[in-house]
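FORM 12-B: Structure-to-Sequence Request
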């Protein structure tokens, strides 16, 4: 197989994994009841984990940090997850589910064009805090980040009301064994 064919296969694989991971996150957003959205007894509310995940997705789909332009409704500090979880300032103006679904659509729509623009052979990620990570590995890291938080939120839903988010295949279909 030629290097160009391999690169195209890698891009196609990244796109499929991005769409599938984001589809699982979307399920969690759509299934979240209002009382859980704003807190539900968790020190970091559901909406904030969603925004953190979408913000990072959007950011890391760029070639580097200089190319990033935040979402038009971005509010500084809302993207950060406090550590430890009960530290930091309380945010009194949470994003709504509708806003997060709008941002989700923006991120999902970016995948095809933005993955195609990335230099996946770059030796560095393009982000100072991930400097030693090659660009291709950084994209895999970003997909893992989405899936990590989608799973965390799915766990909250399962504990709260037995809701189950379903595995999404790379073709966008729900996996049904």
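FORM 12-B RESPONSE
SEQUENCE OUT:
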């Amino acid at each position: 197989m030629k290097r160009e064919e391999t690169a195209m296969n890698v891009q196609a694989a990244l796109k499929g994994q991005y769409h599938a991971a984001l589809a699982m996150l979307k399920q969690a957003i759509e299934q979240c009841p209002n009382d859980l959205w704003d807190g539900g007894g968790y020190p970091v509310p559901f909406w904030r984990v969603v925004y953190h995940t979408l913000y990072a997705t959007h950011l890391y789909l760029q070639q580097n940090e200089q190319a990033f332009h935040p979402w038009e409704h971005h509010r500084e500090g809302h993207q950060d997850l406090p550590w430890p979880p009960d530290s930091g300032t309380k945010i009194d103006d949470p994003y709504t589910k509708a806003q997060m679904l709008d941002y989700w659509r923006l991120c999902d729509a970016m995948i095809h064009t933005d993955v195609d623009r990335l230099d996946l052979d770059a030796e560095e990620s393009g982000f100072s805090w991930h400097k030693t990570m090659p660009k291709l590995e950084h994209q895999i890291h970003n997909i893992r980040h989405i899936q990590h938080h989608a799973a965390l939120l799915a766990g909250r839903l399962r504990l709260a009301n037995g809701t189950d988010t379903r595995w999404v295949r790379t073709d966008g279909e729900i996996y049904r064994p």
